[in-house]
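A reminder before we start the practical. When you read a complex entry, don't treat the lines as separate problems. The point of joint prediction is that each chain is placed relative to the others, so the output describes one connected object in space. Small molecules and nucleic acid strands, if listed, are placed in the same frame. In the example below there are two entries. Take a minute to note the order of the lines before looking further.
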Amino acid sequence: MEISKIDDNIYEVPVGYRPGMRVPGRIFVSAALRDMVEPGTVDQVANVATLPGIVKHSMAMPDAHLGYGFPIGGVAAFREEGGIISPGGVGFDINCGVRLLRSDLGADSVQPLINTLIDALFQAIPSGLGATGRLHATDQQLTESFHSGARWAVEAGYGVEADLSHCEENGCMAGADPSQVGVKARKRGRPQLGTLGSGNHFLEIQRVEEIYDEETARRFGLFKGQITVMIHCGSRGAGHQICTDHLDVLTRAVRKYNIDIPDKQLACAPLGTPEAEHYFGAMVCAANYAWANRHIIAHWTREVFERYFSGSKLDLLYDVAHNVAKIEEHLVEGKREKLYVHRKGATRAFGPSRREVPAAYAGLGQPVLIPGSMGTSSYVLCGQDRALDLTFGSACHGAGRVMSRSQALRQFTGKDVKAALNRDGIVVKATSPGMLAEEAPQVYKPSGDVVDVVHNLGIATRVARLVPLGVSKG
Amino acid sequence: MPAPSNCNQMISFEYLEHTADVKFRAYGHTPEEMLSNAAAALFSAMITPSQVVAGESWQVELQGEDLEDLAYQWLSEIIFLFETESAVFSTFKIALLEQDGWDGTGGWRLSAEIGGERMDPQRHSFLCEVKAVTRHKFGIRKDDLWCIQVVLDV
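Here is the predicted structure of the whole assembly.
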């Protein structure tokens, strides 16, 4: 069986492509990006479609590529009655996400100091393998971060109250159950609170290069030539271990509840069972930890900017999660239904009709933040109600890889990648320079092409394009 | 997964192509050797082994429902120790690997000694960060050689 184009930028994986599919798959790509979708990714979309209680379609966003279980860029929603929850649909890095800070500074004043600023940020924010935080969180603080996320961070003196309303879930999801976070996850998470991580995580100073929608940009507080700071990181070892521990439990649960899964990473449990509730409670802990983490890092970023640009502002535009399962109400065949929406490498993109959109952006839609790969453009989009019809209000999360790490290491060296970025005027500071090769811009799809699909489908519309001036990486 | 065919000149492990993650197969004439080589494959994805001087050791005791489950626990434990001990490893000696019971249905137990040293940012430069062992296409097969296939989340 073949996948077929059913509309501009929409391809269907028919029921029957793999045995046991309950719904069709939908892959949202342009004709140009279609060739970059590996057969394995299509298989993964089809595998997800076999899971019980799945509603409408198993979906893949325009940046979709091969993952483990769910494809990266995968979205699937399950009804409460007869549905499941799966850590495979969330990922190990629970609430890996992005926040964007907008300053009142222009690039002209910051560019001359870019080396100094990046150095200072590199010093101020621990990153890389083995990094432990400046925070030295206690056990109690760890529990509070699980319970209250960014809200705890504000109470502990990091960031301000006004930040919270500009954060998905106000920086704290309800339903945290710290008793479901094991000793190992606590042991990994505690020293890492307030660290950036490594790999494709980064802190980037950017310049607003292009405005596509003047009115929305004005409402979002963005202007051409403005300095912004993007922070991309997640729940660190706490999230990784929580996923590992609960995957163990759910691997046994599929046998207990007689669920046939085509891939072990799709281990799951029926909603309402103790196993499902325990995973959800622990997942929320990790999600909240990640929001606290990004909040702390943003606070230290503000401190650095204050040192060099006293009195300047660095407000939070928005913060989005791209690896999480949410309980959301959606219209399904004219009826409001409570669904468990899994987004694995996909960003929520809610339009103006949703109450979850911050009051500051009422009538517009939520900001959707799409980081570029290192050295390429990032984008700010505005979520639209059309997304609710097509993708349960979901968009891509980045550019999506096209080249494996081993291939990247054969073609590039960290030194060459850094030199090439320097030639483009981009300053890079990395804890592990050897890892830069794997994140060379060429290993990703062109971010503009991916964003085009999201814009053309009406899921989220382009507001601004940001270009990097300096990157701090683990 | 295809049957391993490198029995006569066995390679310890090999990396396979995967777009976003690290995928490998590790081999052994015995399950102990396979597990030791799997650990080496996991760690070699993070750091070149020659950078690590094995001056310290860590003891590991684990149990699993079956050999696959035990293998998953073993590899996950290495990541856990790497992070919580801030250590890098180069030797993985399986001292004991046995199955309980006599009818082939019992659980499995493993005890091992891992050799390595504490992380030193001056000498240790990392190739990637392994976040976790996935269960995607995770499996053990025995033909002429024991073979385990693993996809790591990096």
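Discuss with your neighbour: The longest helix of chain A spans residues 274-308. What might explain this?
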